[in-house]
Amino acid sequence: MSQTTATGWNIANPEQLYKAAVSDSASYGTTLHLMRLAPGEGSLTADWIDFAEDAVPHREYSLEYRTRGGTDATVIPLGRGRGSGAATITGLTDGTDYELCILAEQAGSPEPERSPWRLFRPGHVPGTVINYIHPEDYTYGFSGRSVASPSIVRLPDGSLLASHDIFWGNEGQNTSMLFRSRDDGATWSFVQFLYPCFWGKLFLHRGRLYMLATSTEYGALLIGRSDDGGETWSAPTEIIAAGSQKAGGPHKAPMPVIEHNGRLWTGIDYGSWTLGSHASGLVSVPADADLLDSSQWTVMPFLPYDLEWPGTVGGTNRAGLLEGNAVVTPDGKLVNLLRYQTNGGNPDHGRAIMLQADPDRPEQPLTFYKVIPFYGNLSKFTVYYDLDSACYWSLVSRVKPDKTGQRNILALVRSADLEHWEIVQDVLNYEDNGWPEDFKKVGFQYIDWISDGDDILFASRTAINGAYNFHNANYLTYHKIANFRSL
């Protein structure tokens, strides 16, 4: 059993998060915090909270911003006694870095209290911005400074809940953020931090909300539950013990959790990039069990990638597989449809691999099933079956033959049999639309999506407007594909 605190998994106050992640003596030195940034075209919306106990009745607040490193600042009064709120700035110059903070008067002091300075860059962003982190913003540097691992659910009360973790290579990679929309994605607000929480997948089961994640990169596989729509969380239960980058450990992404044959199933990998590859498996639990009881979970032995499987790519590729989708074939087989790292292979893109599970023996390892043609196999993709259309659907980062590393074209694809896929349409395409940044700087990737009536709703790990690179994204964005079955 792994617990973050005696009472739960969630932390609202960045000061408490900082102490938990860094040390008990660590401090931001302020009760004022900018909780969410949403830069747009010539604009910024910033959400803030004052965690001081006497914030509401006694303090007057203002927002200050300036160009990065500048001396001339603009101050916007926010009023007295609110303790939290949102402020929107307009008239900004796209492509320019700015910094901003929240100010509050201090009793007995002529100097105001300041939140930590946050960086942002305005510019056009497709979709609706849920959250943003500038690549040189170290506010959450103990975990990282990049948005990753999108996940999204529609809650029973009709609201949307989205999450992302905070990533950067060789940093702590241990914190996730939750955001809520009560108006179908038009506006979003901060809910909670989850710590330690990385690579997390939000999902509903029997009307209850769960998060399946690791504690950090290759850390323990954890599951926690919220009974109030994400406001508070149980202490997480450990399903698989922590590993390490050096020795290997659990690896995942926000992959589908499906019910089949009386059990819940989801894909998990084991290995590390340091070791050069990941073995593939599924974890499962009886659908009627207490999901927070670790003894109810079954972890099958992990199957290594084998170059001798028929149909695998030639060349020197040995990176293998990761981030698999548990999915049921039209004839009832339970398979794990996996991202296939064909970099350096022949061909070097356009293939995915299916491994088969025995749903009656969840303790048995996967077996090789087949290699299939597949668009967008070089980045994480999510596959769901849609009963109304009798098709499987996914959103993939498709590539062109001369740019196999790109993730700046997002395509909607479908299949009637899970083996033969067609492109329905490009949903986001900045390769053909003349976007000024090159393909190494723009990414629409790691899409998590749900079908919602006639529409697809999705969250994207989006890199644009000065991201470090396409991989280390700076935005979590929300999008809708209307009437997707008719496209």
From TrEMBL:
Xref: InterPro entries: FN3_dom, FN3_sf, Sialidase_sf
UniProt xrefs under SUPFAM superfamilies: Fibronectin type III, Sialidases
Domain of life assignment: Bacteria
Designated name of the protein: Exo-alpha-sialidase
Lineage: Bacteria, Bacillati, Bacillota, Bacilli, Bacillales
